[in-house]
């Protein structure tokens, strides 16, 4: 329970998982810094704190490399949301999610929500090639995006779209239905009722970190969805005598632990 | 007075370390198989085995054997031997021819040299008879790996070296190739070109290794006209360097060792041995995928940073009061299981603090610090975040992981980096809290702006005309028993401002270093008149010094200059080096240890194995 002793205490934890080179770091970088640049293969995991309204959301960008596989469950401990990322041009990256990464989420919260994200959509989908910022200010755009682009991600384009004005499109190896099917399997793996859970249409995204397509929508949808979890956690804390764990830092985590269990 | 004819003096041949048991015919066979690998691929081409001598060392220190001409006197040898020299002079070309089929067959069985692809043959020919090589257009066109194609289209910088056509001349012309393969001959890493395209080349390398091994020998190196091939076997890994840099075999082997350590730092020695015990032909690239950048970065550093050559760390000059105050800040921000706190600016050390009890009589080795610095350099992708990653310090303990917390203190500039090493996998939040304390204290003391002013110094500050550059490495400073080995060196300034000139100076230093540390005839003092500068290297029981003067300096001048330089360094010592490495204690202090983690020290030190497979 060392996370309870943190000063700027994150209210909720979001974890990015997925095979190497699917673009986890790029997605986060796009969202946090509004930029796309070459990234270097992540070592271990990188921790980011995002201010979301009055809440602190911690985001763990993990390494996709098998080398760091052993750490995955540690990063996932107590997560409220897990973003399972794959590359739409690489079927294997979707398969890896099920094979390697799903089991890591065993340590996540029982009410953890899962999002399936197919990145690099710009390589297969001309719509994803237009930067969302092209129309106006990024701020306005993000507001629009929060509602709008869910539609294209929900009803995915057919894989074969060979003609494109902006040149060579790659073959799309992972169709939206495949992701939705995997989402269903994830729910079953978690023993969650499909009806009681968030629908696949809402939780499967296709994004492009390169153009920014759907990126804000992804993170902001998730953040909105984890809010209830934050509120509940705060509420639980309010009921307990330890309102703010910061006051008890000197005493130690033992005390804090006993109060929340 | 020594002359710069080192290269002509290098005997050419294959050097094998031979256990004391008497001679055996394997060297003959090796030489022929070497040439035959070439012949096999290029039937109509005469392999210049006359430029190759097989050398077998009874002992590493004795540099010569039966037939080879290298005398301890180190006199310049004739540039190349006219006669084919293969161990005992009796091997003749006709014999080679006869044995050809048999040997190649043997090789196929013995090792993973299955498909005698032309690029592998070409490679050996290149090594052995570069001068005679003819382009035959037989190469395997750079087969790009499906693994690599999978997901990195968007970062061409990343794949540039990996994509190289390994049959092209430009590939062969790289100054220094490094290959890593498993004992089963499986490619693990190549500095240039994709491992897949090079699998047959690596197969040949493995064939050489196992061929020599089959007669209870160890292959150490192969010399040719322009290239030195150095082999290093470490556990289940084989590392090979093919270099035209004219460095000594020892230096090249040292560099391979750094590569090995970097791999260990990512996977640990224990898990590598475990993996290969279970599965001999495991593809280690699965675990190293994505780490190529780190190895590439290391090799670039090894080529451009003398720290590796000197096996010492370079710290940023700081007034001792500032360094002390930084150390105190680090000392106050501790948490259980924290063992090292390291502050780095501009890729140089500011200060290192270590836990007292854990490291009672061990010290952090320079090589481990180099690996950490390289890791930071290669992982600075995204600076706002706080990185938490397992890392093994191979010289500290090759089988266990530390957990490294890496964070920049001055975003967005990202020049000042904090590195905290803990033995507890779960300690991220506690360690991150230390960072916040450090940050607060540094704001209060305005440390960041003071650090920003710190910079390396100019050689002109020494006030010795004719002195262009130097590297000074003191051995254990008396009041600092068992301190981290450090060295100091000014900026490289004109005429060494261009990359080529910097490299040229470093090459000269490497040459001096190789003479000083020669296994056959080590030297204490070298005065070396090179084409465009004069160098003087001097090693005593107290220090190792390399100096570079303008070409017209006289010997007397140089000696006087060095006396002045040593006096200047003595005066500036407090600023140039970390003098008093501070220690802290996380355990015996009851007020501290009551806080947070209850996990006991012993348990957490070895909980670090990554679950593999």
Q: Keywords for this structure?
A:
heterodimer, A: 261 residues, alpha/beta, Rossmann fold, six-stranded mixed sheet, 6 strands, 35% helix, disordered N terminus, disordered C terminus, B: 613 residues, alpha+beta, Beta-Lactamase, eight-stranded mixed sheet, 21 helices, 18% strand
Total number of helices of chain B:
21
- The count of domains of chain A is 1
Helix content of chain A: 25-40%
Number of strands of chain A: 6
Approximate strand percentage of chain A: 15-25%
- Our count of domains of chain B comes out at 3
Note the gap between the termini of chain B: 59 Å
- Distinct helical segment count of chain A: 9
Family (chain B): Belongs to the MON1/SAND family.
Pfam family, one (chain B): Fuz_longin_1
Function (chain B): Plays an important role in membrane trafficking through the secretory apparatus.
Organism (chain B): Menidia menidia
Description:
The complex is a heterodimer of chains A (261) and B (613). With 261 residues, chain A is an alpha/beta fold. Chain A has one domain (2-260): 3-Layer(aba) Sandwich (Rossmann fold), CATH 3.40.50.300. Chain A contains 9 helices and 6 strands. Chain A has a 6-stranded mixed beta sheet, with helices on both faces. In chain A, strand 2 and strand 3 form a beta hairpin. The radius of gyration of chain A is 19 Å and the shape is globular. The N and C termini of chain A lie close together (12 Å). The relative contact order of chain A is 0.17. An 8-stranded mixed beta sheet of chain B has the order 3-2-1-6-7-8-4-5. Chain B has a 6-stranded mixed beta sheet with strand order 12-13-14-10-11-20, sandwiched between helices. Chain B has a 4-stranded antiparallel beta sheet with strand order 15-19-18-17, with helices on both faces. In chain B, 47% of the residues are buried. Chain B has 3 domains: 6-145 and 154-174 and 182-228, no CATH class; 313-454 and 584-605, 2-Layer Sandwich (Beta-Lactamase); 459-576, 2-Layer Sandwich (Beta-Lactamase), CATH 3.30.450. Chain B starts with 5 loop residues before the first helix and ends in an 8-residue tail after the last helix. Chain B is of the alpha+beta class and 613 residues long. Chain B is 38% helix and 18% strand. Chain B has 21 helices and 20 strands. In chain B, helix 2 crosses helix 3 (93-110), helix 4 crosses helix 8 (199-214) and helix 14 (320-332) packs antiparallel against helix 16 (428-444). Chains A and B meet through helix 1 and strand 2 of A and helix 11, strand 12 and helix 16 of B. Strand 2 of chain A pairs antiparallel with strand 12 (386-391) of chain B, so a sheet runs across the interface. Chain B: Residues 467-573 form the FUZ/MON1/HPS1 third Longin domain. Chain B: Belongs to the MON1/SAND family. Chain B: Residues 1-118, 585-613 are annotated as: Disordered.
């Amino acid at each position: 329970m060392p996370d309870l002793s943190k000063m700027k205490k994150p209210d909720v934890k979001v974890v990015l998982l997925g095979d190497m080179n699917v673009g986890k770091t790029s997605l986060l970088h796009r969202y946090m810094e509004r930029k796309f640049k070459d990234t270097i293969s992540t070592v271990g995991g990188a921790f980011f704190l995002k201010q979301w309204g009055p809440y602190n959301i911690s985001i763990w960008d993990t390494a996709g490399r098998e080398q760091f596989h052993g750490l995955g469950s540690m990063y996932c401990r107590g997560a409220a949301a897990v973003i399972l990322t794959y590359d739409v041009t690489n079927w294997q990256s979707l398969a890896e999610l099920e094979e390697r990464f799903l089991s890591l989420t065993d340590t996540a919260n029982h009410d953890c929500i899962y999002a399936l994200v197919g990145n690099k959509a710009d390589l297969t989908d001309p719509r994803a090639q237009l930067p969302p910022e092209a129309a106006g200010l990024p701020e306005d755009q993000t507001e629009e995006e929060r509602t709008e682009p869910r539609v294209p991600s929900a009803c995915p384009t057919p894989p074969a779209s060979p003609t494109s004005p902006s040149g060579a499109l790659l073959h799309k190896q992972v169709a939206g239905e495949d992701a939705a099917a995997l989402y269903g399997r994830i729910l079953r793996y978690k023993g969650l009722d499909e009806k009681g859970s968030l629908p696949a249409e809402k939780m499967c995204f296709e994004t492009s970190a390169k153009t920014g397509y759907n990126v804000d929508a992804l993170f902001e949808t998730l953040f909105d969805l984890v809010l209830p979890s934050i509120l509940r956690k705060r509420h639980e804390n309010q009921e307990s005598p330890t309102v703010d764990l910061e006051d008890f830092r000197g005493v130690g985590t033992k005390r804090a632990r006993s109060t929340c269990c | 007075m020594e002359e710069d004819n080192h290269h002509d003096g290098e005997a050419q041949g294959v050097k094998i370390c031979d256990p004391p048991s008497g001679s055996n015919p394997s060297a003959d066979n090796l030489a022929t198989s070497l040439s035959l690998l070439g012949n096999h691929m290029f039937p109509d081409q005469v392999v210049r085995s006359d430029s190759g001598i097989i050398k077998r060392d009874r002992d590493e220190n004795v540099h010569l054997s039966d037939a080879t001409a290298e005398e301890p006197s180190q006199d310049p040898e004739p540039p190349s031997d006219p006669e084919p020299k293969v161990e005992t002079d009796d091997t003749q070309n006709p014999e080679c021819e006869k044995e050809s089929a048999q040997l190649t067959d043997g090789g196929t069985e013995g090792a993973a040299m299955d498909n005698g692809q032309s690029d592998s043959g070409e490679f050996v020919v290149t090594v052995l008879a570069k001068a005679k090589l003819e382009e035959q257009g037989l190469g395997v066109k750079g087969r790009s790996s499906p693994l690599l194609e999978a997901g990195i289209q968007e970062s061409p910088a990343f794949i540039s070296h990996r994509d190289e056509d390994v049959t092209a001349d430009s590939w062969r012309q790289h100054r220094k190739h490094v290959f890593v393969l498993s004992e089963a001959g499986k490619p693990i890493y190549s500095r240039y070109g994709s491992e897949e395209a090079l699998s047959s080349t690596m197969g040949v390398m493995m064939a050489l290794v196992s061929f020599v091994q089959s007669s209870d020998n160890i292959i150490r190196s192969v010399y040719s006209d322009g290239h030195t091939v150095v082999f290093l076997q470490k556990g289940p890994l084989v590392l090979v360097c093919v270099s035209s840099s004219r460095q000594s075999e020892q230096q090249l082997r040292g560099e391979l060792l750094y590569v090995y350590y970097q791999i260990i730092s990512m996977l640990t020695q224990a898990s590598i041995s475990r993996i290969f015990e279970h599965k001999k032909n495991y593809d280690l690239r699965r675990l190293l995928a994505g780490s190529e950048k780190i190895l590439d970065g290391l090799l670039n550093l090894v080529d451009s940073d003398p720290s590796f050559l000197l096996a010492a760390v370079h710290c940023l000059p700081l007034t001792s009061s500032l360094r002390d105050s930084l150390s105190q800040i680090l000392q106050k921000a501790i948490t259980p299981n924290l063992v090292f706190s390291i502050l780095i600016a501009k890729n140089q050390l500011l200060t290192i603090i270590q836990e007292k009890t854990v490291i009672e009589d061990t010290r952090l080795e320079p090589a481990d610090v180099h690996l950490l610095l390289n890791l930071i350099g290669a992982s600075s992708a995204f600076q706002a975040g706080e990185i938490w990653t397992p890392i093994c310090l191979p010289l500290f303990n090759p089988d266990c992981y530390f957990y490294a917390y890496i964070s920049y203190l001055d975003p967005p500039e990202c020049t000042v980096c904090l590195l905290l090493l803990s033995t507890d996998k779960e300690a991220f939040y506690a360690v991150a809290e230390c960072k916040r304390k450090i940050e607060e204290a540094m704001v209060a003391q305005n440390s960041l702006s003071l650090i920003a002013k710190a910079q390396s110094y100019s050689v002109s500050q020494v006030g010795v005309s004719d002195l262009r550059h130097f590297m000074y490495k003191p051995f254990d400073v008396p009041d600092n028993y068992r301190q981290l080995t450090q060295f100091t060196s000014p900026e490289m300034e004109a005429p060494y401002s261009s990359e080529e000139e910097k490299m040229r100076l470093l090459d000269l230093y490497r040459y001096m270093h190789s003479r000083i540390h020669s296994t056959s005839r080590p030297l204490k003092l070298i005065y070396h008149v090179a084409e465009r500068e004069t160098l003087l290297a001097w090693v005593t029981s107290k220090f190792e010094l390399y100096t570079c003067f303008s070409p017209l300096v006289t010997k007397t001048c140089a000696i006087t200059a060095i006396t002045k330089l040593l006096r200047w360094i003595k005066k500036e010592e407090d600023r140039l080096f970390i003098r008093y490495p501070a220690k802290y204690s996380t355990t015996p202090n009851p007020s501290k240890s009551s806080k947070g983690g209850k996990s006991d020290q012993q348990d957490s030190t070895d909980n670090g194995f990554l679950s593999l497979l």
